[in-house]
Structure formats: C-alpha cells, structure tokens
Amino acid sequence: MGRSAGRMQFPEGADPAIRSAITITSRLAHHHGGRRCRSAAPILWWKLHDAVRSVKTPEQAGARGKSHQEKECEVGKPEGAFSARNLAAALWHLQQVAGVKGSGRRGRGGRLGFKLESWGKFHNFALERATKWDVGCLVSVHESCHNHGHQKLVNTRLNTVSVISSLWEELEQAHLYLDEHQNERQSAKQKLCCFMRKPWEEKASWQISEHEKVRDIIAAIKDDLNRERRSGKRMEIMNSKLVSELAEAKLSAKQYLQNYEKERKERELIQEVCNKLAKEIGDNKAEVESLKRESTKLREELDEERNMLQMAKVWREERVQMKLVDTKLMLEEKHSELIKLQADLDAFLRGHASTRANTSVQKADVLREAGFG
User: Fold this and answer.
1) C-alpha to C-alpha distance for 43 and 24, rounded to whole angstroms
2) Which 3 state secondary structure label does DSSP give 1?
3) 78 CB contacts (<8 Å, ≥6 apart)?
4) Can you tell me the distance from the alpha carbon of 212 to that of 218, in angstroms, rounded to the nearest whole number?
5) CA-to-CA distance for 47 and 114, rounded, in angstroms?
6) SS3 for 7?
7) Cα 239 vs. chain centroid, distance in angstroms?
8) Which InterPro entries match (predicted)?
9) pTM (2 decimals)?
10) Which of 118, 219, 329, 373 has the lowest tally of Cβ within 10 angstroms?
11) How far is residue 368's CA from residue 366's CA, in Å, rounded to a whole number?
12) Could you give the maximum distance between any two Cα atoms of the chain, in Å?
C-alpha cells in the first residue's frame, strides 16, 4: 500500500493535527480492530477532534479568557463546559474501547499520556454525589467540575498537541520508512528481475552456444561421412583394381610357373646332354689334342703362306714400281731428245729456204714417227 493510499483527503484549511490523528486512527483501526473496529473508531476520533477544535491554545485562552467567561454568563450553557463534556465523553468512550480491544490498545493509550483512571474516579465521585439529591453540593460540584474541566481541557489540549506533533513526526518517519522500504522493495525486485534475467540470458546464450556446437559437430560429422563415403568409393575402386590386378598377377604367376617348369625341364635335359658331352669329351681328349696339334700346325702353315703371299705382293709392287720408274726415265730421256730435235729442226728450218721446208717437215715427221715408234 503506497503513501498516497494511506492518506485521506482533507480541505486546505483543516488542522494538520487533525489530519495526522485521522490517518493514525485509520491505520490503527485497520491494524487492530479489523472489520468490527472500522465503523466505531472514526466516530470516536471525530468526537475527540471536535473537542480538540473547540479547545483553544494556551495563548488564545489567556488572551480571551474574559470574553469566554462573559459568553458563558450570557448563555445558559457555558461553551467550555460543553467542550469539556465532549472531551470527557470521548475519553470515556476511548477508555471503554481500549478496555475491550486489549493490551495493544492500552499500550497505545498509555503512550498518548491520558490519565484515564483518575478522570474516571473523579467522574464517578461526581455522579455519586449528584445522585444523592444533595442540593448544596450540586453548585459546588458544578463549580469544581467547571474548574477541573477547564484545567483538564488545558492539560489535555497541551497533551494532545504534543501527542499529535509526535504522532505526526512518527507518521512522517513511517512514511519515510515506507518510502525507503518501497524503494528497497523496488530495487530488490529490479535486482531479482536482473538476477532472474541473467540465468535466463545465460541459459539462452548457453543453449545458443550448445546449438551452435551441436550444429558444428553435425556439420563436422557430415563432412566426415562425406569424406568416408568418398574414401569408401575410392577404396571400392581401388579394391576392384586390386582384384583385377590380383587376378592378372595370379594368371601371370601361373604362366611363370609353367614357364619355370618348362625351363627347369629344359635345363635338366641340357644338363643331361652336357654330362653326356663331357663324358664323350673325356673319352676323346686324345683325339682333341691331336686335332689341336694339327690345327696349330695348319695355323702355322697358313701364317707362313700368308707371310709369303704378303712378301710376293710386296715384291710385285716393287717390280711394278721399278718398271714404272724405268719407263718414266725412258720417256723423260726421249722427251728431252725430242725437245732437242725440235729445237734443231726449228733452227734448221729457219736457216733453209721455204723450198726445203717441205722436205724438212717430212724428215721431222719421219723422225717423230721413228722416235715414238
């Protein structure tokens, strides 16, 4: 319940003490009495406040005491006695209500400072004397009640003013405490909301991070599965290739085994033949040695014949060269002789006449024919 809800609305000219008292009465009635006290308590407090309104302050009472007494003399019923009665009745009703409500209300009345017991005894004593029809005592009782009521009004007025001011201060402190408590409550609510938000936000962020992690893991698993599928396909292809290569290797191994068996058989046959040949060679060693000797002799003879042929060739070449040299020398000599003859003929021809030219030419022809012949 906020501060504005606890206060009642009053006019601007109302006394602040009345405001505070009424608010306190409403709170006390709401706190102590429940539904039974809500209807009765405001009436009593309004009676009390009517009495308080009728009572003047001490300064006003001192300044206007004579006019007040004059008014009481002029009017049959004095105004101070009427307000005192109202105050006494209100206090008496309050005493009854406090006695009915219990210790909590009594403690509150003791806090206000009202001497209810003494006033109750005095009131009972006055009533007892009034019921005895003592005429002499009625005037004294009336005067004593008037004086006592006037003093009581002053005392109660002072007490009520102090109590109302203290209650007003307590009310302000209570309002401040309520405001602080409300602010603390709001701050606590805000802190609680922030505190509750943080786990939700952390949980949401954690869930988001976990979802992202799961997505990353799923993506990684998908990538791994795709890689494994690709690797599986590659392995299948490699396995098919290896199976085909293994089949080819088996066929080639069979062929190699067959070839090896053939070669082994051939080697065995060759070894048998070689052994036979070795035996035959061992038996025919003498013949082989004689054949070797004959072959060596034949080789030597052939070498000698070759040497002789080479020498004959050399000699033939030398003879041919000698013949060529001889023929060359002869040709050179004849050529020189011809040159000389030609020179002689030229000289002779120059010396003789033209008649003899023919004869000389004939002779020269003859000589040339003879020389070349």
Assistant:
1) 14
2) coil
3) 71, 72, 146
4) 10
5) 16
6) coil
7) 44
8) BLT-like
9) 0.23
10) 373
11) 5
12) 246
CA distance 55 to 50: 9
For residue 71, give both structure tokens: 């008014």
| Two structure tokens written together for 239 | 């396995």
Residue appearing with tokens 């030609």: 342
Report CA-CA distances (Å) from 360 to 337, 339, 355, 357, 372.
Answer: 17, 16, 9, 5, 18
Distance CA 46, CA 21 (A): 10
- Map out the domains of the chain as residue ranges: 3-64+71-197, 294-372
